[in-house]
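Human: Note token order:
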Amino acid sequence: MFAYSKWDAWLENALEPGRGIFLDFPNFPKASAGYAQDIYFHAIYVLYPRPVLVSDPGVTINSAWDILANNTYPSERWLLDWHVGSVMSVEMDKKQKLPVVKSVHWLGE
């Protein structure tokens, strides 16, 4: 079962006050792509009005496939310009077969 309350806490703890977040899904298995979609769209809802990015905002994200195919950013400066203060890397836990936070990278100015 996917626990949204757990993700709500993880997302809030990964935020710098007043800034958004970039969700990174490095090497995320395509068979589990639905989780990336659920996390992204849930984060948009929970963190509004703070930005939640998974790619360049010019890229239309409608599905998990869009996320995994475009999950990059040009630089930390670029993220800061988009009011993003951290990058959360998400991976699949092979034992639980659920997504978990691998790391949170805070961006400096």
